[in-house]
Task: structure prediction
Amino acid sequence: MLRNVLGVTAASFVVTLVAAGGCGGQIEGADGGGGGCTVPGGTYLEHFVAESPSCPALQDTTYTFNATTTLSAAVDAGVVSSGCTVDVTGCTVTYACTQPSGSYTIQMNESLSYASDGTATGKVTETVTGNNVSTTCTYDVTVSKK
Result:
């Protein structure tokens, strides 16, 4: 299953991206263009719903913005690893990562559109390839303030 191939749930991977602004490593591709959308400080719940019943369920996760901040500042303060890009345009954050995991390659794309109250909606698509296997799962994502 996708969850076993990743070694971590997609939810924890996404939280790392949202809360830290990337997937760990060197900053590359962060774009503050129009990223002045403000997100209130607080704790948020991120919920994932698989679009296909054949995809594994992902656990809800939480993350915290310690203070009211703009999305571009949150991304600029984070770290984005080699193989990942982050773009902030207005109130939309888009992530794209391609990472090796053993004999597999994981490609993850996420787009979240934030409202002024910090809630967000979007999609995450993950494709895992390797060992003559290719699996793609798409999840609808909602973020709500706790």
Remarks:
- The longest helix spans residues 10-20.
- The radius of gyration is 15 Å.
- The CA atoms of residues 5 and 105 lie 9 Å apart.
